Amino acid sequence: MGLFSKKDACPVCGGEVKGLFLVKIGDKKTLCKNCSRQISMSKELLKTATPEFIEEHLDYRRENAEKYAAHNWTVKVTSIVGLQFGLDEAGRAIYLIHDDLHDEDNPVVFSFDQITGYELLRGKKKLDGMEDTGQIPLETGLSALGGVARALKNDDSTSTDCFHLKLTTTDPYWKEIDLKISFTDSQLYGTFGIGGFAGDFKQVCQIIKSIIRKEPVHYIG
Ligand SMILES: [Zn+2]
Questions:
Q1: β-bridge mates for residue 180, sequence order
Q2: Helix (H) or strand (E) holding 206
Q3: Which of 48, 49, 135, 143 is a plausible cystine mate for 25, CB 3.0–4.6 Å?
């Protein structure tokens, strides 16, 4: 147990365990860098994951990479701070890239059928859900002096706010997803109303909602 104790080998592949940002699984085991970077599953599952569970997961991730490569991503949205989104309308699938999904190298692909729930919050306040029709409001009722007005004035570009995009899916490793998207007013609404990601974000949310509601899916580029 001393300062110089040799670390255990990776419980999945037997490789050397060193470096930063390594993934820990159940029984206080730590994965090597190679295995760590391929993991994409909820924290709850990781906490109790066994090496065998991880091995199965790595197979699943290899299949995911093949799926990702096989789809024709006609829409790729990269303007949203911290979130990337792709859509294959004909192939009926989306991908999401986010730090919480730990999937930048191998974006998690969801078929339309796998997505079962959607909710959008700003801070703790609910803005939109799968039962709501019509335009998605990005403002809460509370922020009377809305972000657009604040961004136009541009007097407080450092104040941060966040959305929570919450999804439920039938993916075995991501049954519940809560993607936090932190932003400043000017990132959301642009500087003097130009260049913000609000429009793209609304569209992405609308697409996800439409998928669940089995309504037509459109992206206006
Ligand atoms: Zn390993």
A1: 164
A2: helix 198-213
A3: 49
Residue 1: what pLDDT? Answer: 46
SS (H, E, C) 111-153: EHHHEEEEEEEECCEEEEECCCCCCCCCCCCCCCCCHHHHHHH
Tell me the CA–centroid distance for residue 138 and ligand 1, in Å: 42
- Separation of 33 CA from ligand 1 center, angstroms? 7
Q: Which of 27, 24, 171, 43 is nearest to 99 (CA)?
A: 43
Question: Ligand 1 mean position to 25 CA, how many Å?
Answer: 12
Between the CA of 23 and the centroid of ligand 1 the distance, in Å, is 10
Distance 27 CA to ligand 1 centre (A): 16
User: 179 in helix, strand or coil?
Assistant: strand
Distance (angstroms) between ligand 1 centre and the Cα of 54 equals 10
Q: Cα of 62 to ligand 1 centre, how many Å? A: 15
Tens-digit pLDDT profile for residues 3-56:
555 678 999 999 999 998 899 999 999 999 999 999 999 999 999 999 999 999
184 vs 190: CA distance, rounded Å: 9
**Could you give the CA distance from residue 198 to residue 185 in angstroms, rounded to a whole number?**
10
